[in-house]
């Protein structure tokens, strides 16, 4: 009785209340005075529904003593015979003690039991079903008897269905054949009408208090006679009899609405906001066609108790449709709604049509005035092409009143990004290819002896694990895409299967217009959960910042840690330069086909510069160290009659994983047969330049089971090696203890023999038990093996039609750019010499074609004294594969001496004496420009040789990298792998959000010349707003977000023209982990006007975080303040560059407005610095100032908290209201009311429902109290909910 005491007492004592049963009962109550005792109380009881009231005594008019709620209870009779105090039955509750009740007779007891059983929810549901069936039958009979329509429109009654069909039979049948009812609305669709609702003269309750009204609009489903479906509802107002609601209702054709659609507006009195307990006050029914034809319609509310007030519907319809149709004489009716032949699809088209064909003066509606002004126009936002990049829109509209009395039209839209799964999938493909490369690098070193074999297996196991994790994640995302899911619910954020997807990624769009000010605008905010790797067990690691600091400290202790990073950077630089040089050669071939000599020289000079950089990447000393290491520890090839070792079997099975490099990194070499990784017999060693897979090659899709089986084999063999090593150490210790001291000198020579035997035993005989099912080449093995012999036959049968730089064959192969285990590395100086000679020959021919035949040979590098290499000699059966120009001697020393001579070459001894020395070089001797017609044929051999030489340099670079990684500490490799994986997860989420925001900006809004200039010269600003608290697990999230956002600054974006028939433009991600490039398809008008060429840019990310929940009071803010100051410096530098460009984000017409905007930005940043340096707790002014600066400079907006649901919803709605106040003159006194409406009835509440299935923000009362006042949700909109 503590809750709703007055209401329950009024219900029990009201004489008009009809009770299901009344009578005297004896209740047993447990009372505690000095000790607990059971007291029997005989009192008058009343049963109303599932409430059993018991009074203080036997008088039926006495006051209420208490109430029993008969939920989850069952009456039962345990003893049919009477007891000492009467006839007893018990109320057995599910989670509470039973209640003992006594009656005076057996018939009375049975009657009470039956009444209590009938009050259960199950029985009430059956009664409701029976009533619905009766109503349906009565409604059908009433319609059959009705013959005359009468004055139903004036009475506000719905039109009969027969009359509607007779008035427009053609339109109704056409619509029934074409339209599908209740589909997702189109973003650019003009609504039939938009309706604002107000009420007056609502009744008071029994205590004389005004109601808490809310209006719910229901629609009668097509084909149904009694099933009303809720369409929309208004916000809740408190204690008013004449409410005027801000929420409006829109009726769209795509949602199944027609002129004959029957609508019911029901007014409820919400008695309790937490549970939304409400009572209906009255309802009114009307047809949609009646609402469309009238500007203002006032209807009486009907209820069983009689009239209970009125409801007023103020509607706006697209008037331009009727005006243009009447002017042109092309009237056409669809579903009883008059519209033009081609209805306007956006606000821009609407304005143009209204200006040409309408002379009606425009006005505005005062919400509080009656009657409203006529001629109010309905404006629809111009959504451009946002539907191409977003899906599943949810919309809510509002009509607000400005300080000048004008209307402010507001439309909220919540959208899902189509790229939520596509971007992580492409990133995973790149990372999968990287793991394949590293696997091939390790296997390319060959089998090593001693502890290095165990380190090799550790690296193989680590990369196979990463390959399996990346492949499994990609497969899970593909399955999600097939299911048509475009966002990850916050309830599953700890699911490791979808950890690469951003949590709750949505686009929040607010369109607003003030017709009196002739101003409209769009605010786009990307809401997304924190970029982090959630741990299902709640374990904390400190985040990426702490992990990177630990890794850095670990690297300082390791001597070769810097060498590993340098080697990796050198490999990536070699791959990038090789790619760029091949692209230049491809362009030169196209120009040579056109015989365009003028355009060839700039490309030639650029190729010379890139080649010079390529030759100076690697130091010969590092290469010599790696080659010496390989020669010292590589195991000699086994005899033919011996079986393959476990390591060689494992590396042989890597072919089943289709190890190949990305398409952009390997360029086709001549098609040859695929060499075996471990060739047997008398086959000579080959330089593995290329092998292009045939049509019978394995599919590109990875077999997760094959990877898992191979990883298991590697893990078992690795453990086997560790056990053998431990056994060997134990045996050595025992032998040293047992051997006599006088044989100590002879024992020093003995240990190598058992070590060698043990090594051989571990290599050939002591295999793991799990190896048997995997190592075999049979078809029943778990790992899908590749029949290399069949591949060789297939490749040999295929015609050799591959040509140089054939784009169709530019795919890589298992051995294209890696050394095979049995292949000896080529000397670095020889590789550099071949590159230099090829470039010199190619450049000389290009200069000859350009008319510079007398130009001397170029110098690419300074001659160096060749280093003497120890312990390495080329096998006798191999001849150095030297790439030389025609008529050039192959010796390296003579090559340096002849090719690099800057002066003119001496004339031959047999040349006549009077002839002057001939200028030029030997590469073009004998060529006649007038007789040379095939330029491509002359250039192709030199380009092919240059490409071969670069392939060998890349192979050497990868070998050096693998050696450096092998020499690194095993624990450091594991730490780096875990950090890399966590960083990839966070970066995938961040890049997905960023690409989605860019595509929404480029497709969903107009792109003018100023914004194109901003992209070209500076790049856009990306402001990430964080609401995380540096306490507990959110500290790790904040740390991960800092690193992930910082990594976005290294990504390059390029705008490319989208295909005309492309319905869903899809960005394409290329490059490597260190140098990513995202190709963004955009409409043709969004590209630069000059030549429609591509445009490249990078973003400037800034991240400001202020914790606002109760944990922010407990957490540390020192690191947060330091990070915010660093990001402020970056924002200030961006503003300085932005100001130098002279761009105006708001496109002000006059110069004075532009100057005032610069001053406003300058003062805003100055005030922001003051706020950052202050020590105010939860200083949200920093976030507000950053939002204003970002909007003034045309930046991208992101808002994040843990799950982008609760705190994010509060922040987004607050920013929307701030924009309405600052730019659309919303009165400040209305901000709390508008803010409460948007939070309780807007799209953010829909976002909460999509994530957890409840219309409740996940706050409790103490948490709400700890929030800043502007971030608190309204009463009734929060409660216990799973976050």
Would you give an account of this structure?
- The strands form 5 sheets. Strands 14-15-8-11-18-19-20-21-28-22-27 form an 11-stranded mixed beta sheet, with helices on both faces. Strands 4-3-2-1-7-6-5 form a 7-stranded antiparallel beta sheet, sandwiched between helices.
- Helix content is 42%, strand content 16%.
- The protein is built from 35 helices and 28 strands.
- The radius of gyration is 40 Å and the shape is globular.
- It has 1283 residues and is α+β, with helices and mostly antiparallel strands.
- β12 (262-272) and β13 (277-287) form a beta hairpin.
- The longest helix has 35 residues, at 704-738.
- Keywords: Coiled coil, Hydrolase, Lipid metabolism.
- InterPro entries: C2_dom (IPR000008), C2_domain_sf (IPR035892), INPP4 (IPR039034), PH-like_dom_sf (IPR011993), PH_domain (IPR001849).
- Belongs to the inositol 3,4-bisphosphate 4-phosphatase family.
- Residues 173-301 form the C2 domain.
- Residues 334-369, 901-923 are annotated as: Disordered.
């Amino acid at each position: 009785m503590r809750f709703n005491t007055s209401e329950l007492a009024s219900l029990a004592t009201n004489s008009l209340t009809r009770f299901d049963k009344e009578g005297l009962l004896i209740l047993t109550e447990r009372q505690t005075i000095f000790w607990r005792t059971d007291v029997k109380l005989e009192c008058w009881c009343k049963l109303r529904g599932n409430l059993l009231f018991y009074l203080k005594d036997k008088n039926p008019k006495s006051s209420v003593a208490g109430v029993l709620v008969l939920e989850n209870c069952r009456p039962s009779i345990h003893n049919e015979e009477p007891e000492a105090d009467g006839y007893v039955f018990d109320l057995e509750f599910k989670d509470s003690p039973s209640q003992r009740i006594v009656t005076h007779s057996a018939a009375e007891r049975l009657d009470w039991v039956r009444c209590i059983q009938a009050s259960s929810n199950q029985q009430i549901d059956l009664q409701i079903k029976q009533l619905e069936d009766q109503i349906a039958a009565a409604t059908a009979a009433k319609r059959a008897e009705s013959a005359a329509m009468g004055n139903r429109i004036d009475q506000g009654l719905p039109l009969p269905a027969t009359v509607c069909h007779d008035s427009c039979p053609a339109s109704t049948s056409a619509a029934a054949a074409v339209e599908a009812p209740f589909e997702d609305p189109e973003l650019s669709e003009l609504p039939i009408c938009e309706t604002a609702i107000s009420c007056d003269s609502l009744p008071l309750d029994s205590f004389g208090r005004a109601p808490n009204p809310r209006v719910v609009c229901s629609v009668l489903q097509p084909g149904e006679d009694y099933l009303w479906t809720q369409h929309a509802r208004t916000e809740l107002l408190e204690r008013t009899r004449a409410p005027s609601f801000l929420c409006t209702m829109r009726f769209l054709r795509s949602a199944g609405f027609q002129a004959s659609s029957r609508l019911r507006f029901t007014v409820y009195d919400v008695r309790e906001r937490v549970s939304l307990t409400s009572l209906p006050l009255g309802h009114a029914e009307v047809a949609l066609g009646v609402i469309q034809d009238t500007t203002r319609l006032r209807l009486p509310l009907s209820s069983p108790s009689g009239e209970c007030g009125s409801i007023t519907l103020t509607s706006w319809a697209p008037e331009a449709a009727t005006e243009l149709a009447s002017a042109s004489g092309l009237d056409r009716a669809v579903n009883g709604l008059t519209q033009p032949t081609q209805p306007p699809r956006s606000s821009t088209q609407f304005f143009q049509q209204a200006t040409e064909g309408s002379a009606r003066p425009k006005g505005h509606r005062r919400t509080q005035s009656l009657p409203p002004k006529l001629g109010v126009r309905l404006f629809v936002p111009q959504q451009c092409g946002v539907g191409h990049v977003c899906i599943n829109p949810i919309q809510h509209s509002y009509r607000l009143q400005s300080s000048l009395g004008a209307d402010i039209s507001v439309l909220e839209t919540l959208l899902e990004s189509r790229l939520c799964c596509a971007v992580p999938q492409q990133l995973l493909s790149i990372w999968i290819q990287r793991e394949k490369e590293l696997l091939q690098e390790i296997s390319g070193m060959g089998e090593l002896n001693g502890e290095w074999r165990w380190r090799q297996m550790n690296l193989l196991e680590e990369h196979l694990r990463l390959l399996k994790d990346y492949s499994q994640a990609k497969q899970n995302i593909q399955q999600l895409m097939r299911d048509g899911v475009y966002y990850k619910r916050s309830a599953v954020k700890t699911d490791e299967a979808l950890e690469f997807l951003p949590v709750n990624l949505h686009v929040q769009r607010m369109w607003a217009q003030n017709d009196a000010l002739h101003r409209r605008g769009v605010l786009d905010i990307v809401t997304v959960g924190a970029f982090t790797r959630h741990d299902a067990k709640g374990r904390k690691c400190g985040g990426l910042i702490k992990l990177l600091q630990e890794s850095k400290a670990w690297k300082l202790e390791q001597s070769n840690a810097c060498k590993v990073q340098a080697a990796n950077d050198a490999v990536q630089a070699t791959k990038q330069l090789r790619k760029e040089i091949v692209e230049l050669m491809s362009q030169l071939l196209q120009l040579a086909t056109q015989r365009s000599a003028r355009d060839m020289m700039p490309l030639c000079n650029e190729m010379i510069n890139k080649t010079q950089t390529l030759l100076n990447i690697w130091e010969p000393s590092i290469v010599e160290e790696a080659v010496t290491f390989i020669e010292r520890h590589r195991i000699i090839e086994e005899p033919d009659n011996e079986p393959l070792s476990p390591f060689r079997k494992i590396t042989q099975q890597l072919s089943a994983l289709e190890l190949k490099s990305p398409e952009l990194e390997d360029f086709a070499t001549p098609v040859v047969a695929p060499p075996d990784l471990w060739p047997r017999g008398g086959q000579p060693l080959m330089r593995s330049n290329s092998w292009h897979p045939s049509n019978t090659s394995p599919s590109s899709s990875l077999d997760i089971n094959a990877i898992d089986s191979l990883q298991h084999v590697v893990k078992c063999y690795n453990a086997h090696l560790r056990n053998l090593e431990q056994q060997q150490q134990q045996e050595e210790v025992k032998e040293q203890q047992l051997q006599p001291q006088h044989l100590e000198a002879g024992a020093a020579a003995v240990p190598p023999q058992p070590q060698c035997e043990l090594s051989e035993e571990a290599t050939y005989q002591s295999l793991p038990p799990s190896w048997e099912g995997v190592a075999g080449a049979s078809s029943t093995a778990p790992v899908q093996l590749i029949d290399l012999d069949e591949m060789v036959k297939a490749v040999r049968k295929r015609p050799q039609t591959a040509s140089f730089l054939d784009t169709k064959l530019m795919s890589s192969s298992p051995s294209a750019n890696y050394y095979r285990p049995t292949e000896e590395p080529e000397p670095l100086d020889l590789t550099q010499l071949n590159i230099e000679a090829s470039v010199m020959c190619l450049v000389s021919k290009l200069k000859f074609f350009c008319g510079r035949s007398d130009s001397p040979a170029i110098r690419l590098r300074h001659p160096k004294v060749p280093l003497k290499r120890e312990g390495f000699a080329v096998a006798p059966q191999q001849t150095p594969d030297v790439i030389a120009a025609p008529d050039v001697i192959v010796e390296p020393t003579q090559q340096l001496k002849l090719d690099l001579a800057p002066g003119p070459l001496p004339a031959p001894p047999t040349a006549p004496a009077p002839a002057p020395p001939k200028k030029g070089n030997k590469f073009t001797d004998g060529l006649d420009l007038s007789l040379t017609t095939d330029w491509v044929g002359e250039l192709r051999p030199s380009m092919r040789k240059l490409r071969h030489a670069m392939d060998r340099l890349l192979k050497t670079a990868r070998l050096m990298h693998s050696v450096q990684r092998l020499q690194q500490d095993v624990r450091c490799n594991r730490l780096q792998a875990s950090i890399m994986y966590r960083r990839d997860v966070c970066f995938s989420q961040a890049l997905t959000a960023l690409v989605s925001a860019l595509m929404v900006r480029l497709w969903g809004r107009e792109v003018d010349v100023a914004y194109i200039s901003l992209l070209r010269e500076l790049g856009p600003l990306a402001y990430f707003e964080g609401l995380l608290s540096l306490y507990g697990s959110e500290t790790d999230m904040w740390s991960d977000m800092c690193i992930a956002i910082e990594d976005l600054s290294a990504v390059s974006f390029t705008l490319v023209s989208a295909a005309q028939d492309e319905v869903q433009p899809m960005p394409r991600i290329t490059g490597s982990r260190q140098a990513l490039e995202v190709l963004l398809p955009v409409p043709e008008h969004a590209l630069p006007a000059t030549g429609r060429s591509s445009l490249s840019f990078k973003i400037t990310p800034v991240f400001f975080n202020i914790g606002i929940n109760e944990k922010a009071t407990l957490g540390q803010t020192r690191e947060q303040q330091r990070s915010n100051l660093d990001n402020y410096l970056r924002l200030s530098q961006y503003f300085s560059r932005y100001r130098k460009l002279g761009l105006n984000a708001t496109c002000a017409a006059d110069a004075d407005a532009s100057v005032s905007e610069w001053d406003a930005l300058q003062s805003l940043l100055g005030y922001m610095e003051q706020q950052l340096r202050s020590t105010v707790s939860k200083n949200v002014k920093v976030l507000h100032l950053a939002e204003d600066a970002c909007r003034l400079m045309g930046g991208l907006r992101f808002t994040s908290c843990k799950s982008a649901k609760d705190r994010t919803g509060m922040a987004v709605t607050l920013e929307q209201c701030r924009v309405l106040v600052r730019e659309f003159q919303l009165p400040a006194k209305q901000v709390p009311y508008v803010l409460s409406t948007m939070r309780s009835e807007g799209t953010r509440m829909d976002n909460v429902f999509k994530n957890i299935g409840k219309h409740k923000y996940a706050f409790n009362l103490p948490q709400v109290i700890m929030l800043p006042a502007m971030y608190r949700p309204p009463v009734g909109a929060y409660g216990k909910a799973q976050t």
